[in-house]
Please model this.
Amino acid sequence: MQTSQFEEAVEPIEQVVVVGTGFVGLPLALQLAKAGKSVIGVDIDEQLVAAINDQSLNLDEDKLQNLLESDEVEENLQARTSPTSGDAFVVSVPTPLTRPQKSPDLSMIKAAVESIIPHLEEGDLVNIESTIPPLTCEEVVVPMLTEAGFTPGEEIQLAHSPERILPGDVFEEIVHNDRVIGGINEESAHRAAKVYEPFLKGETYFTDLISAELCKLMENTFRDVNIALANEFALIGDSLNLDITEVIELANRHPRVDILNPGIGVGGHCLPIDPWFLNEVNPEHTNLITTARRINDKMPQASARKIRHALSEFDNPTVLALGSTYKPNTQDERLSPANEIVDELRRDGYEIEHFDRLVDEKQYDNLKMLIEKIQPDAIVHLVGHSETISQLEELKPWIADQEIKLIQTENGNPLRL
Model:
């Protein structure tokens, strides 16, 4: 249900402790501090804590950077390596997969909850924002709080509000996206809404804990399965020597068909991970989901095969690879298919020079100067950053004159199979 009058009777929240100040927790902390709330940002990374406190952290988005450097944030946000007291504790730490089992690793969730327990007082809120498997709140968080002497839903309020943000557009999405908040009871859910109230412009929808846990996983799994369908179409088209992009455009002329664009793989910290959380709790009914996940997992290897084929005319070629992030126009390299492709080719013995204009340790200032310095036999465009697309388009005649092979599709989404 949407926001109701019940929420208006819930006590406001003045001090928020955000445990985990990474891709999700830091934007929340910045928004709350900008709104005048007292915010404690907690992270085990001492360098990150120092960079937040002296406002020297280099963020991916200009609007987030402006927030970090604002007077309000300087006044209201303090970063620490350990928690302190507060009205609300937001847990926003990663939930990776174990290898090779592909089971959720909840160790950071448990460590975060354990770290705040000594600071909890009656009436406080614990709000899990991390993406978690269904039943995590009920089977992991509730027992931890109970063992510490609290009754969740009575002395301590407990909620789960999974994030809905997109790296590269975090500022807009954290403000305008709708919020789903699950609570151990109605009071907990509405109290958690008070955390986001100072900046949220989207709607708020309330439910129970397990429904909120499942909702986030369904959202990302839906996207992953549909991407896998497009990628499998691409593999079929490749076997038939067809430009599958043209066929997809034709198929999408149907009023009830909307096939996505295939690509080199699926990266980031959500889509490659979240579907496995569903498999963990119900493997019997995740056959389609896990098959889709395996299709997307093999796309970097399929892309590497295409590159090897394109490079077969050369003996020991020098290759310039452009792009190392998991998607265009972001600095985020988490589970990047581009990096997996480069690693695959290097294992095959190819000499790969790998650069990305947005990633600090791989940056370059001028693409033409970079090409002149590397003198590659081939350029493989892996990630379609807008500026890279624009520069490559301008340089195409010159690249051809240099007899350098350019492996790229026309619209900048390269190696579309």
